[in-house]
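Exercise 3.2. Students should predict the tertiary structure of the chain below and write it as structure tokens, then compare their answer with the key that follows.

Predict this chain's 3D structure.
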Amino acid sequence: MEETLLYDRRTVEALRAAIAREVDRLGRPLQIMEVCGTHTHAIAEAGLREALKPGVRLISGPGCPVCVTPVSYLDRAEALARNHGALLCTFGDLFRVPSSTGSLERLRAEGADVRILYSPRDALAVARDNTSRPVVFLAVGFETTAPTVAAALLEAESLGLGNFYLLPGHKTVPQALRLLAADPALRLDGFLLPGHVSVVTGAGAFAFLGREFGLPSAVVGFTPADILRGVLEIARQRAEGRAETANLYGRVVTEEGNPRARALMERLFRPCDAEWRGLGVIPGSGLGLAEEAAPHDASLLPAEVPPPREPRGCRCGEVLKGAVEPPQCPLFGKPCTPDLPVGACMVSSEGTCAAWYRHERWRLEGFP
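Answer key:
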């Protein structure tokens, strides 16, 4: 199908009609999961979730890297500040995410040095200006950000910044999708694959979904037309009994991805088991630092870390798994809002609860 960037009523209505025909041909409704926070917000903003009912149900998965970061990670970051006087550097989305005892925002209010940066390279300048203290960059993200963090680490080596550390928290998407695809409770018919992640991994990294689980998938961009094309592709494959990975974002995604970015990751990171909020420990789904980068590994510094505690009543973990929708959480929109978030899914700009609150709560009974 020819690519289009159009977002006009005629294009969208034509795609909706084509999806409805394929669902009728299949003879039953479809359940499709998107696994990208940007897709979640684009779907909510355009009203696609409602527009595709009843033939298609769109389910949000673990597409927000900050949201899937467990409480124990934040607890360790806070312990590094308290036990070692570490200067913490973080992306803004992580700043207000609850830890067991507070948050990075609260930690800074108590006197710790916590800085919000826009790039891991910015942390190098902080380390250069504070050579007497450990400077720890909180390395959270998917394959999208891991290469830039690896590049910053190489630059730190070349500059001789022995006080520059990473607290590894990167996760890789394919292993999480394997877990979700195997979950019979979700009854998934396919996946809308993350466009930004696929730029690095390549569309081929997700071919196992069809081969091992018989699930079609589509790499898509971020306009409503892009997303609807992905839904149509999955519906058509289902109706025709096929299960392939279609790359519908060919203007930026290739089959093999970005070899230079992947080479950086392979040099400085090693796969490891990682804990995901809501999904538990997924084997091989994390990126720990390789042996040559061990001198910069903040996770090797001794620290007194308390047993992790999730915010009481928060169902963020179930939201991330696609088991419940945000309104099913008793905190949603009441004590938990973007201004006063209780859970990570409401804090992050990519979080599912934040997307529902901003764009979809008006359809819910009892909400303004």
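Discussion points: The two ends are 41 Å apart (CA to CA). Residues 9-26 form the longest helix (18 residues).
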